[in-house]
Amino acid sequence: MTDFLNTQLHALISQLQHLLQHNELAQGGLLLGALGALAAAARSWPHRLWGRLLARATFTLEIDGQDQSFAWLSVWLAAQAGSRRMRHMGVATRFNESMGGLALALGTDQDGDEITVRLIPLSGQSLMRYRGHWILVRPSREKNQSEGQRMLGYTHTLSLQMLGRSRHLIGPLLQDAYEATAGAVSGQTEIYTPEYQNWQVSDRRRSRPPGSLIYGGTLMDTLLADVGRFQSDREWYQEMGIPYRRGYLLHGPPGNGKSSLVAAVAGAMGLNICVLNLATPELSDERLQSLLSNLPRRALLLLEDIDAVFVGRERRTETVKLSFAGLLNALDGVAAGEGRVCFLTTNHPEHLDPALVRPGRADLHLHVANASREQVAGMLERFFPQGQFTHFGAAQRLALAGRVPEGHLSMARLQEYLLERRGDPLRTVRDWEELCGPISEQEPADSAAKLPAFQTPEIQPPESQGRAGRAAGLPTSLLLCQLFRQQTGGSEFTV
Ligand SMILES: Nc1ncnc2c1ncn2[C@@H]1O[C@H](COP(=O)(O)OP(=O)(O)OP(=O)(O)O)[C@@H](O)[C@H]1O
C-alpha cells in the first residue's frame, strides 16, 4: 500500500516538474503567486513591526471619561498649542468660571457673575510639545449600547502616548494640568453625586463663609474645631488603633441651617461634599458599599434627612432598596473610607434607631434649633448693617428681637421675611407682628428685658412719645414705627 502511494506521489511530482519546465503559462502563474504573497507579507510586516516597536518604545497613559481627572485634563489639553489642529471639540459647561483652560466668555448673569464655557477635545489626534518632549494626544468617544429605550450616551477616553523615556513627565504633566484648572479654583465647593458606582461633580458653588450663618451659642465654633482636630489627628487614631473616621448628627426643625452648616464647614476646611440620597430606588446595599469605599479625596459625606428612609430599622417606603443592615455595614464596614467625615441630618431624631447614631457612627450630636433672639438680632444686623441705616441701630434690632417668641421661628422664615423687606427698615418694623404672631399687650415692656444674651435695649424715643406710647400699651414695634416716622419726618429712611 505504501509502495503504491509513493509511486503515485513521484509520478505527480515529475508531472509538475515537467509542466513547470515546459509550460510558460504555469511558470508565470507560479511567479505571480509568489510575488503576491511576498508583497502581502511586505505590506503587513512593517505595520506589525512598527506596532511592536511602538509598544516597546512608547508609554501610553489612558484616562477613562468617568474619572475625575478626565474633566480638568481635557480642559487643559484643549488650551495647549498642539490642540489647534484638533477638528472635533465639545463644549463643557460644568466647569467653574475661575478654572483655567480655554474659556469662552458668554457674558454675565443677573448676579453679575461671568458665564463661561470651556472647550474639550472629543476625537482626533494632535502632537503636543511638553517640556521639550513630544506627546501624542488622542481623545476618543464611542457611542454606548442603548439600554431599552434609554440611550446611555458616549464613553469617552483620553490617551496620551509618549516615548518610553518621557514617562517621567506624567507626574508633572498631571500636576500642571490640575493646578492650571481645577486646582486654580479656590473658595469653591464641589458637590459630588453618585453616578453608577462612582462620584461625579454635579455642581460647584462658592463656599459659604461661616460668618454668613448665625447659630446659637458656640455651635459653629464647636463643629469647626472638632472637624479641624479630627483632620490633624490621623496619626493618633492610627496609634490608638481606632478607625479614622468621624460622624456628626445634625438634628432640629427644618430651615435652621443644618445643610448650610455642612456647606460652611466644607468651605472652611477646603473640603468638597458628596451628597447621597439614601431613598434613591437604585441604591442597593452593594452599591452603597462601593460608593462609600470610593469617596473622592478631601470630600465629606452628607446623608440628608435620614429619617425619610428608615423609621427605626424599617424602610419608610417600598421603593427604598437599601436595607438598614446594609446601611450600618456600609458606614462602618471594612470598606468604609479611611479619614471619612460623615454628616447625618434629620428633623426627627426620635425616629432614628439608636444603632445608627451611636458613637463611632455619629460621634457628635448637635441640635440646630429654631431662632433664638440672639440669632434674630444677628440676622437683623446682617440685613441692616450697623451705621448704614440711620435710626436703625443696635437698640432697634434688640428691641425687635425681643418681640420674637424664643424658639418659634425658623431661620429660613426669618431670612425670607427680611429678604422681602431688605433696604426697608420701616416695612421690616411695621410688619414685624406678621412674623412673630399676635403680640399680647402686656408683653412688650418686659419681653425685651428677658433677652438672654443682651442688655435691655436702650431705645431713646422722644420723652413724650415714649411715655405716651407706653401709657397706651402699644407694642414695641408700633413704638418703633412711630419713632422712625418722627425722626425721619415720614416713611423715608436714609441709607
Ligand atoms: N443659622 C442660619 N443663619 C443664617 N441663615 C440661615 C440659618 N439657617 C438657615 N438659614 C437660611 O435658611 C435657608 C435654609 O437653610 P438650610 O437648608 O441649611 O436648613 P436645614 O436645616 O438644612 O433645612 P431642612 O431640614 O429643611 O433641610 C438657607 O437659605 C439659609 O441661608
Q: Could you characterize what this model shows?
A:
With 495 residues, the chain is of the alpha/beta class. 40% of the residues lie in helices and 21% in strands. It is built from 17 helices and 16 strands. It has helices at 2-22, 24-57, 68-78, 170-180, 219-232, 234-240, 258-269, 285-292, 324-332, 373-383, 394-403, 411-420, 425-430, 432-436, 443-447, 463-471, 476-488; strands at residues 58-64, 88-92, 103-108, 114-123, 126-130, 133-143, 154-163, 188-195, 198-206, 245-251, 272-276, 299-303, 310-311, 314-315, 340-346, 364-367. It has a seven-stranded mixed β-sheet with strand order 9-8-11-12-15-10-16, covered by helices on one side. A hairpin with a 2-residue loop joins strand 8 and strand 9. The longest helix has 34 residues, at 24-57. The protein is elongated and about 125 Å long. It starts with a helix and ends in a 7-residue tail after the last helix. The model is unreliable at 439-495 (pLDDT under 50). It binds adenosine-5'-triphosphate. Residues 213-215, 254-260, 347, 368, 411-412, 415 line the site of adenosine-5'-triphosphate (ATP).
Features:
seven-stranded mixed β-sheet, 17 helices, elongated, four-stranded antiparallel β-sheet, alpha/beta, binds adenosine-5'-triphosphate, disordered C terminus, 16 strands, 21% strand, 495 residues
Topology:
Elements: H1 2-22, H2 24-57, E1 58-64, H3 68-78, E2 88-92, E3 103-108, E4 114-123, E5 126-130, E6 133-143, E7 154-163, H4 170-180, E8 188-195, E9 198-206, H5 219-232, H6 234-240, E10 245-251, H7 258-269, E11 272-276, H8 285-292, E12 299-303, E13 310-311, E14 314-315, H9 324-332, E15 340-346, E16 364-367, H10 373-383, H11 394-403, H12 411-420, H13 425-430, H14 432-436, H15 443-447, H16 463-471, H17 476-488
Parallel strand pairs: 8-11, 10-15, 10-16, 11-12, 12-15
Antiparallel strand pairs: 1-7, 2-4, 3-4, 5-6, 6-7, 8-9, 13-14
Adenosine-5'-triphosphate (ATP) binds next to helix 7 and helix 12.
